[in-house]
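This is your field. Pick holes in the following sequence-structure pair:
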Amino acid sequence: MQKSVHKIALMAVGDDGWQGGIQYISNILHALNAVGKDKQLEVHLFRHAAQNFSNLEQLDQIKIIEHDTEEVFEPWNMKNRIQWYLQRKWGGRINPRMENYLLQLNVDYVFPATLSSCNGKLNAGSWIADFQYHHFPDGARKDVNADAERVISNIAHHTDKIVLSSHFCEEDCVRLFPNTKGKTHVMPFAVAIEEKSLEFRDFNRIRQQYELPEKFLLVANLFAPTKNHQTIFNALGILKKRGLEIPLICTGNIVDYRNEAYANEVLQMLTKNRIRSQVYLLGLVPRADQLAMFRMATAMLQPSLNEGWSTSVEEAKCLGKHLFVSDIPVHKEQCSDNSLMFKATDAEDLATKIEKLWHETASVSFPDLETERKAFTMYKEKIKAFGQRFLEIASS
């Protein structure tokens, strides 16, 4: 039976330590705005002080109401704790503090949140980003993996609607938790890049501010073992031995809270390959500056060993960029026609592909405004499809 969906609760995820979560929710807001009309959709955004969303006023086709999670939910006093305990014990509740408020608000759908259906009164969707704890346990501390497994197991066993970003992750979910068969929904996301950002032309300011070279490659990923910067660094080392020194810009948090020691390994990789002078570790940069760098780059790279659905791949598609991408199953699902796909841990393969493109684009200036504009225009349909899929799952 299809449910009517007009009032949506979006629960913000992520923070400065995981910008991907913030961007995911922002992408949903933009997708809903793309399919919304005359503010008929009412979106209640629940966030805390460290979760910042910019330019929400530009989303003029949906009505957005913001809630501070530190203020709206009932306080943690003894009376409430007893009530919540009883609701969990006898009522099958998961998070009664949140569930009670959302029931009072009378929302049609809440996402992403691990909540009970409250005997059919609350329509909630949970989200599993990926199963990294299972595929790459060495990518994070044991306690972090244990927490991830506990959270995902709780979703699998106690929620009615589970959203995943790829068919590959859906297959993982059903294989690891057979009881989820029939409860899963695939919703690949599209990224939201504001059209106004394509009007930016002061690339010399960006180049001077960050001391960037004229031509460069770019990778935008958190520094974590599964993000596989190592293969890029090894490929650049191979190319340097061939006499080709290619600059690489790296944006993204250098320290991963799940594996703090990895930052030192990154520096050792640069030294081992003798490429420290050509790799620019910029850390987290303002989004507007990062987008300018994407546009200026000769090509982008996405070398990950594990993804649920890659933001970098979507950004490259949206901007019409050349993209070197690893051949993991999710990437094959996401961009099967990419001629620059390389064997995920094969630095020689990546080096050969980089060298070929670098020479082919030697006389090309970036950004390529015409290619960029065409790609951006075509990508708008993907954003609409994302919004439509969100509403389909919400109403199911």
In short: The chain has 15 helices and 13 strands.
